[in-house]
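A common beginner's mistake is to predict each chain separately and then try to dock the pieces by hand. The better habit, illustrated here, is to supply every component at once so that their relative placement is modeled jointly.
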Amino acid sequence: MINVAILGFGVVGSGAAQVLADNAAVIEKNLGKKVAVKRILDLREFPDSPFGHLVTHDFNDILNDKDITVVAEMMGGSHPAYDFTKACLTAGKHVVTSNKEVVARFGAELLDLAAKNGVRYLFEASVGGGIPVIRPMVNDLASNKIEKVDGILNGTTNYILTQMIAGATFEDALKEAQAKGYAEANPAADVEGLDAARKIVILAALSFGTLLSPDQIHCEGITKLTLADVEVAKAFGCSLKLIGHTEQVAGRVLAMVSPRMVPLTNPLSGIADVFNGILVDANMVGEVMFYGAGAGKLPTASAVVADIIDIVAHMGQDGVRAPKFTVAAEQDYADFGAYTCRSCFSFWQEDGAAEKITAVFGDVKTVTVGNRIALIADAMTEKEAAEKAAKTGLTLLSRIRVLG
Amino acid sequence: MINVAILGFGVVGSGAAQVLADNAAVIEKNLGKKVAVKRILDLREFPDSPFGHLVTHDFNDILNDKDITVVAEMMGGSHPAYDFTKACLTAGKHVVTSNKEVVARFGAELLDLAAKNGVRYLFEASVGGGIPVIRPMVNDLASNKIEKVDGILNGTTNYILTQMIAGATFEDALKEAQAKGYAEANPAADVEGLDAARKIVILAALSFGTLLSPDQIHCEGITKLTLADVEVAKAFGCSLKLIGHTEQVAGRVLAMVSPRMVPLTNPLSGIADVFNGILVDANMVGEVMFYGAGAGKLPTASAVVADIIDIVAHMGQDGVRAPKFTVAAEQDYADFGAYTCRSCFSFWQEDGAAEKITAVFGDVKTVTVGNRIALIADAMTEKEAAEKAAKTGLTLLSRIRVLG
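With all components supplied together, the output reads:
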């Protein structure tokens, strides 16, 4: 019998208890061992929960319990989640987590601490909710050099954009997302791209070994997108998505979050509603994509429990492989100014606009949508894009990057 | 240094040698050990290959070489691949393979033999080419009960169907697939669904533990599909795909291959050309999909090498988890007659056809395409479908199952 403790009995924490209980038979069959929740740390009481009697308010009840060998941290936020994780790893307990904030900020230190203490720190649920992506990147793509990753990493914004593609305004789509419980009353972390930034930082570290700070990467949300942008995207045969992107630029790591037009031929284009997808481009396998529920109680809990199973399956074995992250120094960040990508420019439609566009961008296809004339230009730097737009003498209404 | 032998230096075998050589640095970094090809078994000579000097024609040179601890079988076909695999496992060598025929026919015995000899038998590349799907199903979905799997498992047929959706006839699309090297001169194994049958049998065994025979499952190919079927699918907002499907029916395992109309809201619908996608429905995580190149030299080789890395990473460890297959007895096969699914019926359009359809199928939406009138009926058994079609008194032109 493996005894697990749960830190934080919120949506995901209670989901993990449920997965372990409801799927106990299949887990025991797959693993050859029983796994059960012994204690749950939460400030609240849960008299109506079947797990209510396991709740303690004192972290030491878990830390000092030698029978508890695996701790599942699902508290959210940096503190005390980080501090408790450190204490557990130092005490020789394995830790699994769904907490992207802790992984994105302290993952390098915690992986290092786990290795030093002969235990493991796993975080499959921190990116893409229930979607298997971290373990496949570590194990299945170990034969590959990863070139780049593009991901729809936030279900709330993807729901809003799906509604906008169907004709709703940003404001109405946000209200509907809030009514359905997908968006919080204060939706900033989602719609400003901060949640996606934490996740792309984790994927960048898995790809290239360097853990950037989510605060120091280029991060644009979806609040400035309009229905006119959606219409221009459609006119170019594209969908509109919030994309976390990472690649290496001149040997240094670039990670960024921004809206992108996604050609309908790209498998990310059709990912709708709250679903997530992560498209990994690697040097031998080419493009592979992982798709599924990027959030939600049971999907995310399913990934947490997969990590617990992984840990139990490898207990007592030496030299189990683990990723290693190095905290990025200033010189490890790619120069965003050197990054190039295709862009869609939308200008105010005026007499002679098409000619002015041709004079600067050459013989490109333009589309006219309402009062806009738009084009997709070849890959160029941010500076070149700004200069070229200015050189037209036209009023720039929006510039949206294009995937691929 | 880990010494690997390659059995079969064809497309995938030479790709595996290339992946191990070209990505040697990244593999050593990920693994902490060097992995190199020591011998290659093939009947041919390869004087122009950088690996040509490693070729032997005598299997015993590999079997008796104690330094070779991992054997990668990429010969294709049942014999002698199966026999060599057995010999290697019995001799205490780990075996990895891309050979779906051997896994589908002998997987239960070979997994058992590997377990008895304290070695492993891995076959990530046998389904979905380079796509990580077997290991994620075994590891990441171990917290879940798998409910069903639907997969686009054959790149050749998906290429042909993609061309048909773009307007080409089956014959022209097949010729183009042959010209591009996607289809063989004798394309039966692909277009009749036999290749997909082997793969769905493997996925069924991973899902439910029972290894069915690919010869004993319902298997329909794409040779009877016409452009009219494509048009009817489009009229109902669907794509047309060859789908391998597995689920449990009354506690027994059903696996089947057949064309299906796939609603455009389903992530499998957009998978084009030679790409594959495997959609797994599991009880906690819901639907997850794995997408990528389902064939090809380097993608498939990438999966073979991922298996080699997995083996090397776990060398010397006891009790490494492995799937266990039980060979299906007759009573383990689900009764295909009890299987129900939605279907699209296309009848010859004639006076009063709509009324006759309503009389039998109730108030369903119909579409008229050319000389056809078509409807999608609720889920029913094969027998019910045949009876209802006959009861209309109309001429049935085609019945195509509908996914979901």
